[in-house]
């Protein structure tokens, strides 16, 4: 849902061009674990020497944070943080873990949205008007409006189109 990347552009280009993601021991650790770990503590093979190459770009000390709440959608949030001067302290690791955890919760789809509300959003997405939706569902237009109002509130959307977009991005519709 969100990517924030402040890594040096030359490293990003090198990493992307070499297609390192699937071979990156940090990424492999992130998808197999939760919590926080310093790069220097990761005990996974690095046959492409990605971490050694990162050091040549000034990325000497890193911390990986992975959050997964075992939800049915399988959503995981993670962060990798780097610095050139020293290892991350335990206190810094705790602060960064809390930050990633907070972002994970903030970006998670609502779990209280009803099937009826999703159905109304789906129909709006398909271009149907309120009258058509009401007729198709066998309910009043007021009931459809209420479902859409509830969906907007639960999704944190200001408008109907924004609610449809968020529900789509969350994979709900």
TrEMBL record:
InterPro entries: Sig_transdc_resp-reg_C-effctor (IPR016032), TF_LuxR_autoind-bd_dom (IPR005143), TF_LuxR_autoind-bd_dom_sf (IPR036693), Tscrpt_reg_LuxR_C (IPR000792), WH-like_DNA-bd_sf (IPR036388). Keywords: DNA-binding, Transcription, Transcription regulation. The keyword DNA-binding applies. GO terms for biological process: regulation of DNA-templated transcription. GO terms for molecular function: DNA binding. Residues 106-171 form the HTH luxR-type domain. This is LuxR family transcriptional regulator. It comes from Histidinibacterium lentulum.
């Amino acid at each position: 849902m969100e990517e924030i990347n402040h890594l040096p552009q030359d490293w990003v280009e090198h990493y992307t061009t070499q297609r390192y993601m699937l071979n990156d021991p940090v990424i492999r650790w992130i998808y197999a674990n939760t919590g926080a770990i310093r790069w220097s503590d990761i005990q996974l093979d690095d046959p492409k020497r990605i971490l050694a190459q990162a050091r040549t770009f000034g990325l000497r000390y890193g911390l990986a944070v992975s959050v997964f709440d075992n939800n049915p959608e399988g959503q995981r949030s993670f962060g990798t943080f780097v610095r050139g001067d020293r290892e991350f302290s335990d206190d810094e690791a705790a602060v960064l873990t809390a930050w990633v955890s907070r972002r994970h919760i903030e970006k998670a789809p609502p779990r209280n949205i009803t099937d009826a509300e999703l159905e109304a959003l789906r129909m709006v997405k398909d271009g149907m008007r309120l009258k058509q939706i009401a007729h198709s569902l066998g309910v009043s237009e007021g009931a459809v409006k209420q479902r859409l109002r509830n969906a907007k509130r639960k999704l944190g959307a200001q408008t109907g189109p924004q609610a449809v977009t968020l529900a789509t991005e969350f994979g709900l519709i």
